[in-house]
Amino acid sequence: MPDLPLVVSAPLAASLNGPAATRLERVGISEISVVAPSFVQGIGIVAVIVMLATAVLLWARIRPGRRRFPRASLLGALLAVVLTQVLVVGAVSARANAHLGFVRTIGDVLAQVRGSGSFAGGPAVLSLPEEPTSIPTSQPSPMPADAAAFTPIKGGSDYTGFSKATVTGRRSGVTQEVWAWTPRGYSPNDGRTYPVLMMLHGDPGSPDGVTTALKAASAMQAAIDSGKMPPAILVMPNLSADSRQTAMPDCADVVGHAQVGTWVQDDIPAVVRASFPNVSPDRSGWAIGGVSSGAFCATWTAIMRSDAFGYVVAMSGFDVPFTGAMSTNRELKSANTLSTLLRTRAHQRLRMWQMAAKDDTGTADLRRDLPSAVPSTDTLEMVTPQTGGHSATLWRQTFPTALSWWGEQLKSPVAADAPLSEPTAEEPSSARQTHGLSGGESATGAGDGADTGAWGSFREVFTGIRGIGVIILMCIVALALSVAAIAPWRGGGFPGPLRRLRGLGGLLPGRARSAEADEPVETAEANELAEAESVDKPAEAAAETAAEPRGARESRASLEAPEDAEGSAPVASPDPGRLKKARALLRGARPVGARLVVLALACVAGTLAIALVSNRIGGFFPTWSIAIQDLALALA
User: Fold this and answer.
1) Positive or negative CA dihedral for 65, 69, 71, 73?
2) Distance CA 466, CA 460 (A)
């Protein structure tokens, strides 16, 4: 067997834990939670307050009839609008993140931003498990020191049956949370043997995010209650061991980095066996799975450590590593590609279930190359829905199918001491007859009736969620609404501009030319402006009234309220001064409300534009319906 360049010697990269990170840790900013209800609600409240204040500022800058502040205030108004939009985007992102669990602290956010620099000093050095030459006789016995105190998690039906513990791995030195789910009625002394499914989160992600995205608690219990799988334990370790692992997660041990490989392969099984003494003692009852990058890591780990895991449950994974140390150069990528490892690395028999939607571009290499690489000793069930993208909606819909598949495998478990595969650089001739292919149905109920040809391409560009035309249009809408929120409105609100537009066609009578602006102004609008100025300039108003002809004054006086007419009998009525103040308040509230509506629409359009750009780059949601389902769940 030819030697594979699995390890590349090179200088270690500069750490992210530099002076800036040290300063953050000193003041504790990096440890501030971004998923805490107080943080999520706080940023939402701040966004609403700033939006209201900005609407008042925009109205006060140019009031109807006169200019309140100089043109220099335009810069302040522009900055206020930008700040409002940033806060609204932040509030929506915080709400979604709190549900999906992508990042948990400000330090995690900074690590994601700095992710590209994790290996800037050169390719990393991987420390990999030795290739087996014989079948292990048995698994190491659990040590009492590995036991952890798991405490129940409170938070609603999504967390029923879940408990968690903060664990320090005795072999890896990693300190992180481990989540565990036990079925209804579980007892460590009930005389049963429980299989274990270990699920790995994606990048970025957390056990919390996988729990809610998969509806894991209800899916596991439903599969058990229906008899599709035996009572089992679900385990989810947190893989974000440090800032570099959070930014560029690894499956393997990287020299100089957190030993995540040892954490997953050795520490977690030892902790589970010591804390839950009635779990399966060997690989015949252990499965490892994951979503997205966690799916890649699960398959990679099973191949590397087939002595610990006999089954793989992978959802929306990929064949070639795209993150972490394995992705830092072509040599490491090639050596750690899953289809290559299946052929070239000796391992015990594996049973694999892989799900990859056909409209998920990131999984194209997996769908194409993995089936033909499966050796005769292994089996593969490849499920390829027509639609679903790279979304939590698809994972949630297909997770019960994965559990049913695993339950079927456990009826005739994989052997604990199965023979090793024979490595070969050639594609096995029997590969296509030893793995089962299934799927082809849409997880969302849609068929394979996508539009083709020029019309289909046109529709995708201008109506599809990833279409560049939709993105450009939404950016234009966001910009136009932002400009509209800042620009002066002479009518004080929506009615004025609308009446002027209709008046251009001569639809409304009684229009006159404004002497100052030389543009059509409706009589009612002119009266409104005159009344607004009369409140601020009583002396000028009195002079104008005195200059009116007597008949005009009497005619106008006859239209005033009865309490203002001379000689009228006193009646119980509100104070005229209060009525004027109320009318003035209403006149001021209307344009402020109009500005607020336009500003809110601008924030919504801006948020949607950013989301569309992110989705096009990341390739998460292929259709509007899937995106709406995911976002509705995240923002509920």
Assistant:
1) negative
2) 8
For residue 26, the tally of other CB atoms under 10 A from its CB is 9
Q: How far is residue 555's CA from residue 81's CA, in Å, rounded to a whole number?
A: 47
DSSP 266: I
Q: Which range has highest mean pLDDT (45-54, 240-249, 297-306, 442-451)?
A: 297-306
Q: How are beta strands 126-127 and 253-254 bridged, if at all?
A: antiparallel
Report the distance separating Cα 132 and Cα 419, nearest Å: 11
- Structure tokens belonging to residue 121: 């000093």
Is residue 194 over pLDDT 90?
A: yes
Q: Which residue has the tokens 């292929």?
A: 622
Q: Among 25-34, 258-267, 516-525, which is the least confidently predicted range?
A: 516-525
What is the β-pairing status of strands 253-254 and 62-63?
unpaired
CB atoms within 10 A of CB 159: 19
- Quick check: 180 and 220 in contact, CB under 8 A? no
- Maximal C-alpha separation, the chain: 115
The crossing angle, in degrees rounded to 10, of helices 576-618 and 468-486 is: 160
Residue 137 has phi, psi (to 5 degrees) of -75, -35
- Calpha distance 343→103 (Å, rounded): 36
Residue with the two structure tokens 């750490």 = 15
List the single range of 372-386, 427-441, 475-489, 601-615 with lowest mean pLDDT: 427-441
3-state helix, strand, coil in the chain (%, to 5): 50, 10, 40
Least confident stretch, 4-13, 97-106, 290-299, 410-419: 4-13
Share above pLDDT 70 across residues of the chain, in percent, rounded to a whole number:
67
Peptide bond preceding 19 in cis form (omega within 30 of 0): no
Q: Determine the Cα–Cα distance for residues 607 and 186; give it in Å rounded to an integer.
A: 45
Could you report the per-residue pLDDT of 319-355, keeping only the tens digit for each? 998 887 888 888 888 889 999 999 999 999 999 999 9
Mean pLDDT within 518-539: 43
Query: Which contacts (CB < 8 Å, 24+ apart) does range 294-297 have?
Result: 294/199, 294/200, 294/201, 294/202, 294/203, 294/205, 294/210, 294/239, 295/200, 295/202, 295/354, 296/251, 296/321, 296/338, 297/200, 297/239, 297/249, 297/251, 297/264
Higher-confidence residue of 117 and 147: namely: 147
Residues 6+ apart with CB under 8 A from 575: none
Residues composing the chain: 636
Residue 32 CA to chain centroid, in angstroms?
19
Give the residue-averaged pLDDT of 403-421.
Answer: 93
> 98, exposed or middle or buried, with CB in 10 Å at 0-12, 13-18, 19+?
buried
**pLDDT of residue 280 exceeding 90:** yes
Task: Provide the sign of the torsion angle of the four alpha carbons 319, 323, 326, 331, taken in this order.
Answer: positive
| Separation CA 332–CA 4 (nearest Å) | 9
Instruction: Quickly list DSSP for 8-20.
Output: ---PPPPPS-SHH
Name the helix (H) or strand (E) containing 293: helix 293-304
**b/e burial code for range 463-484 (CB count within 10 A of at least 16 → b):** ebbbbeebbeebbebbeebbee
